[in-house]
Specification:
The structure is a single chain. By secondary structure, the chain is of the alpha/beta class. The protein is 34% helix and 22% strand. The protein has 3 domains: 12-134, 3-Layer(aba) Sandwich (Rossmann fold), CATH 3.40.50; 149-386, Alpha-Beta Horseshoe (pyruvate-formate lyase- activating enzyme), CATH 3.80.30; 392-459, Nucleic acid-binding proteins (OB fold (Dihydrolipoamide Acetyltransferase, E2P)). The protein is globular and about 60 Å long. The chain binds 5'-deoxyadenosine and iron/sulfur cluster. 5'-deoxyadenosine binds next to β15. 5'-deoxyadenosine is lined by residues 59-60, 176-177, 273, 275, 313, 315, 344, 346-347, 349.
């Protein structure tokens, strides 16, 4: 965060390593805001830091392992600088608590997903030589302002695309998922506070906001539901684009589809996690929709905007998944034709229902299925991207290309990354781009002579 790297002469330096999802990225930003008030300044290097925080993820076993191997690397730094303080936050911290302190004596403090705003108090204690594990959960009110206002009132410069958390936690207990254990039950933030944070982000440079929550479309606070919240945010002066992630297919309805199609800021892109194409597996995952109802829901969008862009999450190798059931997932993605798939091998998480299911598959079966899924999807993406060549797209510019001269980069409303040659546009500008080439995961284009916006909505 830019505002954070001011003169650091009188303060301490903090390095935060973020793992996992966008919610963790958002939490890291909030940690920076909190620490700035304590006279800590951001550094990009471990070696330079007085304080290192690992904001951890436990969604899959691999993510959890990364934390422990990183802690191994930090050992030498602590030996070289015994004054260095090391803290572990996020989902692994929430689950493991004190066990982390016992496992690694270099760790000074552990804090849970509800406790990041208590960092100042924790730091005062650790500087007195205490070791701390603080993973306390708070009163579970259904609606609560779980982010202190001072953190977003002090935002000075923000990103062109910013995240904004509207709910945290989850009540769904999908059988594979650890999140209800690590993030707790669902809490919605009050709409007034969300609007105030959005206003602050826009006034400090943000042009696109992505609303975050484990299950955003079950948001409800003070009589305002998710669609009403979208209507309120859509009116915000200066906000160009609004997105959200992730909605749950079981709560996706016509009212939400109408809002996506009709509200000008809402983009023609949706991330809707499918997880599997087999109804039996979906039932065992406790997802509460079928392939048919999922298809009906996305049809509400594609029937009105045929080029509507879709992305999803897929898990392969769920316990008991047969070859035929895996084949149903492949057929499903061929039918739907997603623009992007985040695909994962099933990873058993202790304490979840599916971890105790029979029929766990071998690593080699999971790897083989993942490979088939990736190959199938690669072909679909290539066709979807190729179909955009020759079209004109509205692109929100995010900055200059890290290698290529006179080239800027940005995203279409469909969330496809684009690089544009010969453009003098600046971060935050909107421009119409003629797409000239499709690469494996991105598009290339040139400034179009068309002046008026040709977002797909205006064409529909
Ligand atoms: N194993 C594999 N993937 C998982 N996900 C969540 N839990 C697991 C797990 N135990 C995936 C789901 C979810 C995404 C964020 O991570 O696809 O949508
Ligand atoms: Fe996990 Fe399911 Fe909740 Fe998503 S909806 S966070 S997958 S339990």
């Amino acid at each position: 965060m830019k505002s954070f790297s001011q003169n650091s002469e009188n303060g301490k330096k903090v390095f935060i390593q973020t793992y996992g999802c966008q919610m963790n990225e958002y939490d890291t930003d909030k940690m920076f805001e909190v620490l700035r008030h304590e006279n800590y300044f951001h550094t990009d290097s471990h070696e330079d830091a007085d304080l290192i925080i690992l904001n951890t993820c436990s969604i899959r076993e691999k993510a959890e392992h990364k934390v422990y191997s990183e802690l191994g690397r930090l050992r030498d730094l602590k030996t070289a600088n015994p004054e260095l303080k090391i803290g572990i936050g996020g989902c692994v911290a929430q689950q493991e608590g004190e066990a982390i302190l016992r496992r690694d004596s270099n760790v000074d403090f552990v804090f849970g997903t509800d406790n990041l705003f208590e960092l100042p108090r924790m730091l005062r204690k650790i500087y007195k030589g205490e070791k701390i594990s603080n993973i306390q959960r708070y009163d579970r009110k259904r609606v609560r302002n779980f982010i202190p206002e001072y953190t977003f009132q002090k935002i000075q410069h923000s990103r062109i695309r910013s995240h904004l958390t509207i709910t945290k936690g989850c009540n769904n207990y999908c059988s594979f998922c650890i999140v209800p254990n690590t993030r707790g039950l669902e809490v919605s933030r009050e709409p007034d506070q969300i609007i105030a944070e959005a206003e602050r982000l826009v006034s400090t440079g943000t042009r696109e906001i992505c609303l975050l929550g484990q299950n955003v479309n079950s948001y409800i606070a003070n009589g305002v539901d998710f669609v009403e919240l979208l209507h309120l945010l859509d009116k915000l002066e200066g906000l160009q684009r609004l997105r959200f992630t992730s909605p749950h297919p079981k709560d996706f309805n016509e009212k939400l589809a109408d809002a996506i199609v009709s509200l000008p800021t809402l983009c023609e892109h949706l991330h809707l996690p499918l997880q599997s194409g087999s109804d039996r597996i979906l039932r065992r995952m406790r997802r509460w929709y079928t392939m048919e109802t999922y298809f009906q829901k996305i049809s509400m969008l594609r029937e009105r905007i045929p080029e509507f862009s879709l992305s999803t999450d897929i898990i392969v190798g769920f316990p008991g998944e047969t070859d035929e059931e895996f084949e149903m997932t492949i057929e499903g993605i061929r039918k739907i034709r997603f623009d992007l798939i985040y695909s994962f091998k099933y990873s058993p998480r202790p304490g979840t229902k599916a971890a105790d299911y029979p029929g766990h598959l071998s690593e080699s079966v999971k790897s083989e299925r993942l490979k088939i899924l990736l190959e199938t999807q690669e072909k679909i993406v290539s066709e979807r991207f190729q179909a955009l060549v020759g079209t004109e797209q509205e692109v929100l510019i995010e900055g200059t290309h890290h290698r290529k001269k006179n080239t800027v980069t940005g995203r279409t409303r469909g969330n496809h990354p684009v690089s544009i040659k010969n453009s003098t546009k600046k971060a935050g500008d909107l421009m119409i781009v003629l797409i000239t080439k499709a690469n494996k995961n991105s598009l290339e284009g040139v400034p179009s002579s068309v002046i008026q916006s040709l977002g797909t909505k205006s064409l529909a």
